[in-house]
Amino acid sequence: MAGAAAAAAAAVRRVALGEYVYGADAVLAALSGSKRSSFHHLFVLDDVDRDDDRKRSKAMRLAEQRDLPVTAVSRQTLDFMSRQRPSNGIVLDAESVTLPTLPSISPSAGRQVWVALDQVMDPQNLGAILRSCFFFDVAGVVLCARNSAPLSPTVAKASCGALDLLPIVECRSMPKFLRQSRDTCDIIGLAVDPSAVSWRYLPEPTPSKSTLLVLGNEGTGLRTLVRDQCHTLAKLDRGHRPDADFVDSLNVSTALGIALYSMVGR
Description:
The chain is an alpha/beta fold. It is elongated, with a radius of gyration of 21 Å. It has a seven-stranded parallel beta sheet, sandwiched between helices. 35% of the residues lie in helices and 20% in strands. The protein is built from ten helices and eleven strands. The chain folds into two domains: 1-94, CATH 3.30.1330.30; 113-263, Alpha/beta knot (3-Layer(aba) Sandwich), CATH 3.40.1280.10. Belongs to the class IV-like SAM-binding methyltransferase superfamily. RNA methyltransferase TrmH family. One of its GO terms (molecular function) is RNA binding. This is rRNA methyltransferase 1, mitochondrial. It comes from Plasmodiophora brassicae (Clubroot disease agent). Pfam families: SpoU_methylase (PF00588), SpoU_sub_bind (PF08032).
């Protein structure tokens, strides 16, 4: 008992060699994926509920396959590692996700749906967007190399593990990326704008092209240089409440989920 307490105390003082990924789904995805260069240690709750035991056991098997040390620690220790956020009794010390750079979407991609995020800054929004993209089988997500939310454990948790499983790339300049993709993609900018067409009246997608859906910053929306590279600006139709002006837009992750759901039907 004293040995276990000492191990837990040492773990609390331990600085992550990489970063602490927390949450059962995020940890399982990280261990199953190939985006992280190395893994260092798996920590599991020393007293788990029956509902949590299945995922904990799977994480421990994956850790064993990677020859990772596994240590059972207290909930206090896990809370410290996850910065008091829900860990589901599992925390993984691993290197952070790094992204490849993509200059444009190539013609060989065929008819696919891609999502480009121009300066989405909130990690919860980014995680929710990645989760929706994975759920709706988006071919890939393009992020700005600068002025975007870091790919942190918060994003991994909010994405339910999609961060480690979904194809994600970055570009140095979003306007340039869109300009170089115009010949291979129908580029649709999602915007709250009087000039935007209703989502219901979007033209049919070009059979030989991918569709690239572009979303902007949570506060300012699409930048002018980004809007100029879109073939079409589209908006989601709102309701007709007399007091609708008090809520004049949707959260960016919610708007994307609705748009992707409608595109699956198209």
